[in-house]
Amino acid sequence: MKHQAVNMLTSFLCLSFVVIIWGTNWLVIKDALQSSPPLLFTGIRLLGGAIAIGAARLCLGYPLQLGCAGKGRLVAVGLLQMAGGLGLSLVGLQYLDVGTSALTFYTMPLWLVAIEWIIDRQQQSLLDIIALTCGMLGLGLLASGANPVATSHGFLGIALLSLAAFSWALGTWIHKRTPGGGNLWSRTIFQLTISGVVVIVASLLLERRPDWNQLPGLAWPIAFNCIVATGLAFVAWYRALSSIPTQIASQSLVLIPVVALIAAAVLQQQTPTTRVMLACVLIIVGVTIAIWHAGGQRRQSP
Q1: How far, in Å, CA of 155 to CA of 139, rounded?
Q2: What's the CA gap between 260 and 210, in Å, rounded?
Q3: 122 or 133: which leads in pLDDT
Q4: Is the N-terminal amide bond of 216 cis, ω within 30° of 0?
Q5: Is the dihedral of CA 36, 40, 46, 50 positive or negative?
Q6: Rg of the chain's alpha carbons, rounded to an integer?
Q7: Measuring CA to CA, which residue among 240, 268, 272 is closest to residue 258?
Q8: Nearest residue to 259 (alpha-carbon basis) of 44, 25, 40, 36
Q9: pLDDT tier at 234 (50, 70, 90 boundaries)?
Q10: How far apart are CA 79 and CA 123, in angstroms?
Q11: For residue 154, what pLDDT is reported?
């Protein structure tokens, strides 16, 4: 019993670590984008994360093996979530404040409800409609808010972050239909690597050339993202999932925008407006309903 309690406490500490790191990382990335194009930084982050996780696994004596089953879908999920989701979120972050960006990006569960409604022709319940309504009202408040959101660039930022959330949700929809064979860590490293290469190529084709004189200033945010926000955070996340139900772990992710808002207010004096706070409440309520209703449907399915 004591061992079980210690194990559960460790898992919740790991989950808290993930929420805090991923929440504050929005500030780290926002500062880094002053010196680096967003796609370039995303590509470095993904490849660096793959190297960090791979090196740690090899040092611990674990082989990196990837089965052949479902590899095409594995690539699709990686490109949608890591290249599309993370890449577009950083492009949109250029135009918005940290809190608005994080809130918009973490509407992913709401977009998943919409995808299942459209593609799977699932019958939507009253709870699904309430969840979508709350989420869309929250996004509407953000899009109609004060400067900088009410500028043309602000609307572009909202659109890009919403597209990033949709891309991640579509990746989740495909992932649910992907065979689960193969080592989880090897699959993650494979997805990070493929997505990182694609984003780097996109950066070379689409973005301005970086000022290499500013590269030393990027050492800290790159190291933080590769080692802490990707490497250690992924280890902590999977450790938490080993003891905590997926539904509860997923629910905890809605706290990430809250952490981002608090961190921005404390560290950068970006006090959220009443409109942003109301949007935060609406989006969190919508996402919470979507997550718990989806969990209830899975338990009821044969």
Answers
A1: 11
A2: 27
A3: 133
A4: no
A5: negative
A6: 19
A7: 272
A8: 25
A9: confident
A10: 29
A11: 78
